[in-house]
Amino acid sequence: MHAMACMNCWPASPRPKMPKCFHRSFWPLALAVGLCAAASVGPGSCAAISAATTHTRRGAADKTSPRAGKNAAGRTTRQAAARRALRGLSSEDFHTRQQALHALQRLLAHHVHRLVRLQQAIDAVERHSGGLLRRLAGPGNTPEARGRGAALLRFNTDLSRWGLKVLTLRGPQRKLLLHWGFERKNLRIAAALYSHNEGRRLAAIRQLAKNPSRTSTIILALLVAAHDQAAHLTAISYLWKRPANTAVVNALWARAISDNIAIFQAPPPAVQHVNVHGQNIVISPYMFFFAQNYATLDSNIATDLLVHLHTNKLVRAKVVATLRRVAKTYNNATNFPAKLIAPEYGGASINFVRMLMATHPPQAVSLLMQCVRRAPATGFVNNINGQQFYFTSVADPLALIVKFTHQSPAHYNLVRVPMFGNRWGIHGGPAQQQQALKRINAWWKKNGKKYKK
């Protein structure tokens, strides 16, 4: 990966001349396009990043400046003109439609013109920086020089990985982390966080954790998604000592719940056969399965921290929103959301029930009651050690209601069946389930008002 920075020549990097259109408000887009373009065409340089970040430092600019106000007014005017022109295309008057067409052509031309000028700016940066990486990769005069050149190339690759990762984030967070990562004092840490060397990664995480800032917390949250087990566990361990923000809760939730759901819903990969010079090579789907599971490895550890944060409003809101989704889709128990309250399915289901019991939201009983009423009543009977058990989608939400309200499972014919993954079942058959439903409906009629929130 190219177009990244060299620490040693950062201070001396002159800033290339930029076209007038290269306004400070476009720097994230310019950097994004520059990274991608340079990665495809070849060498980049520290000068490219130096120029972009120098422009950023100057330009993270005063939104109250006359120039910023003028640009904002221009954007607003063009947006209003575009809305008027789009409405004009549907006019019954031919002359109005023609005017609208011409107006949209002018707006599109303005857009293309700005893109072309931006590309010219990127080309100028690439011309200015060309050849640096080739010189670093050259033979060198001494073994020490060659070693330093190799180290700088590794630094370039690692910093590129950091930059491309940050570019996948959304606007405000992306802007914050790009600005942080390309500051001189943070260059080595940013590169080391995405190094191929595990020792460098862990050392960088420990160094990052010494800084109690909000930016450091966001970066640690970003590392919760790392496939490297040592990296994401170290990041989670430091997050225990910090106040949780949206980035932290979202990252933990993804590892504990969301990514588990995505894997569970994904169609099972098929066995592939590849013929190599007469040999039939069978590619097992399990390699694909385990590769996907990197995203959910240690989901229980992420859940431990979410349970610890059970009083956090963000965590509680996610639990309630997910339970609403479960209740809405519970009429079709084959959908995965319905399985989130059935711990026998493991993974996300176990994690979600743990969080549900820890947060204990007041809406839970009402939503679980909706699940009981929407659940398909049909199931299957199994005889185990001379006893009959009935397994349906009713048992799991009913058992949770009983737990939440401190009632007796036996009153509703509920038992755990160890031979079936310790899942809840009805002791008996369909008649015993009907009896349990009548009892819970009678209880709800008497006590439901205090749970309807």
Explain this structure to me?
A hairpin with a 2-residue loop joins strand 1 and strand 2. The longest helix has about 35 residues, at about 95-130. With about 450 residues, the protein is α+β, with helices and mostly antiparallel strands. The protein has 20 helices and six strands. The protein is extended. Among the domains are: about 25-60 and about 80-140 and about 145-195, no CATH class; about 370-450, no CATH class. It has helices at about 25-40, 45-60, 65-90, 95-130, 130-135, 145-165, 170-180, 185-195, 200-210, 215-225, 230-240, 245-265, 285-290, 300-310, 315-330, 335-340, 350-360, 365-375, 395-405, 430-445, and strands spanning about 270-275, 280-285, 380-385, 385-390, 415, 425. It has a four-stranded antiparallel β-sheet with strand order 3-4-6-5.
